[in-house]
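FORM 12-B: Structure-to-Sequence Request
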């Protein structure tokens, strides 16, 4: 039952009686099938749409048939999804996108406008956020970059172990098209890194385990970072992609014995880039220092070859070489401010993505409140189904009732909303007035996708619980 309530819950903004920041409630279901809460600094989270249906469902199990309750739950869930789908409105304009982003960012209009610019230019899938404490203002730029399905050779190179990724800023790039079996190759390439205080990115076909051990020992006591990427794929495709990467970074592809003993190979054959983000599955190289003329010439060669070939791999190489990434540089003074802005940007980005896919609905629990009216029209065949529908109906009203209660307003003001025929009318507890929801832009993203994906999960949970021997065991199970 807990999972069902969470699947129907949308983001509910509550009035904070302490006068600091608005209170939010967001429940989500991740891909690992675990119910999670998302926390934001300086806010208080409360389960709004969970406790009431949980308690009512367990009370009903003692006087109603589980099969009938299940049927009632399903009927109500389907009706709510259809109603939310009808209430949802698509967002298309820059102002609408900025408003959704601002609302999700706790009223930060600057972040809302930056997110709107990202979506306006179609960069939402290629956005990388960088936090710079020295920056005086936020910046949004587009830089050349390439994403490859080549992962890290070893988890040892993680710089952010909690995210399981390696991030290098201002890195030199060594591209080696064969297997590295001698650690002197990497040591020689790391000399300019130590002199200039830069990191080193090594892209090679493979690296011997002994070499990995030597490199791990060498870089343990140094401030410079190293990252080794294992290039996968067939030999011809791998070498071609390495050549593309060399052009993008302004370096050269080295082969075994190609001048590695020369003291002049380093400045001539090492490439460079502004940022590297690598995981065990892929690597993103941003801001390569290659000449724009060389990159364009390489792209023209690929376009000419594509006309004479039917291979999709050439098109993929062209897309990677000619593509790029949106870099959002966010200023922040101190860890607390950086962490807060990071959460705001993440929430705003996800909210706008959901709003563009599923639309927006009236906020502050109004959409769920009006959706509960549709359940009065459902035709049930027995009393057990009716009880299941009533449980869902009461749960949908709890969000709006709790908002009014937290503002010190009697719940009768919410009852007046249910008496209205218009679904555009809402209540502003801060002013104590009835307002037009769409006119005052009190909206939130529609969570129809979550409802459709998990609206029946609670049924399996109830079936498991119903086989218990006592009510206390049932409560522990859910």
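FORM 12-B RESPONSE
SEQUENCE OUT:
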């Amino acid at each position: 039952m807990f999972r069902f309530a969470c699947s129907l819950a949308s983001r509910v903004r509550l009035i904070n009686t302490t006068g600091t920041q608005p209170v939010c409630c967001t429940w989500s279901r991740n891909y690992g099938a675990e119910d999670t809460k998302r926390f934001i600094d300086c806010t208080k989270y409360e389960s709004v749409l969970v406790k009431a249906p949980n308690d009512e469902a367990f009370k009903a199990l003692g006087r109603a048939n589980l099969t009938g309750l299940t049927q009632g739950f399903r009927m109500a869930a389907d009706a709510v999804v259809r109603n939310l789908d009808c209430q949802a409105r698509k967002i298309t304009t820059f102002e609408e996108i900025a408003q959704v982003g601002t609302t999700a960012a706790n009223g930060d209009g600057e972040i809302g406008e930056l997110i709107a610019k990202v979506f306006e230019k179609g960069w939402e899938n290629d956005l990388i956020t960088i936090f710079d404490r020295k920056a005086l203002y936020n910046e949004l730029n587009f830089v050349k970059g390439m994403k490859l399905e080549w992962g890290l050779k070893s988890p040892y190179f993680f710089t952010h172990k909690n995210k399981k990724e390696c991030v290098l800023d201002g890195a030199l790039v060594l591209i080696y098209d064969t297997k590295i079996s001698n650690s002197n190759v990497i040591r020689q390439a790391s000399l300019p890194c130590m002199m200039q205080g830069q990191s080193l990115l090594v892209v090679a076909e493979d690296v011997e385990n002994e070499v990995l051990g030597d490199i791990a020992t060498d870089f343990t006591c140094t401030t410079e970072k190293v990252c080794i990427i294992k290039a996968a794929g067939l030999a011809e495709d791998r070498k071609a992609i390495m050549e593309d990467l060399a052009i993008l970074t302004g370096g050269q592809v080295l082969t075994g014995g190609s001048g590695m003993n020369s003291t002049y190979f380093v400045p001539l054959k090492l490439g460079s880039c502004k940022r590297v983000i690598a995981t065990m599955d892929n690597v993103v190289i941003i801001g390569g220092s290659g000449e724009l003329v060389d990159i364009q010439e390489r792209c023209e060669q690929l376009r000419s070859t594509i006309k004479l070939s039917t291979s999709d791999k050439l098109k993929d190489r062209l897309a990677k070489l000619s593509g790029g990434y949106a870099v959002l540089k966010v200023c922040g003074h101190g860890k607390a401010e950086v962490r807060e802005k990071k959460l705001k940007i993440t929430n705003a980005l996800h909210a706008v993505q959901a709003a563009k896919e599923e639309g927006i609905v009236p906020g502050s629990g109004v959409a769920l409140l009006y959706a509960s009216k549709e359940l009065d029209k459902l035709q049930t065949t027995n009393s057990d189904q009716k009880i299941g529908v009533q449980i869902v109906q009461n749960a949908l009203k709890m969000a709006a009732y709790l908002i009014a209660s937290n503002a010190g307003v009697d719940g009768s003001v919410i009852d007046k909303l249910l008496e209205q025929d218009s679904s555009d009318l809402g209540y502003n507890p801060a002013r104590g007035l009835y307002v037009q929801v769409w006119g005052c832009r009190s909206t939130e993203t529609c969570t129809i996708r979550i409802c459709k994906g998990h609206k029946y999960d609670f049924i399996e949970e109830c079936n498991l619980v119903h086989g218990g021997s006592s009510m206390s065991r049932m409560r522990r199970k859910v």
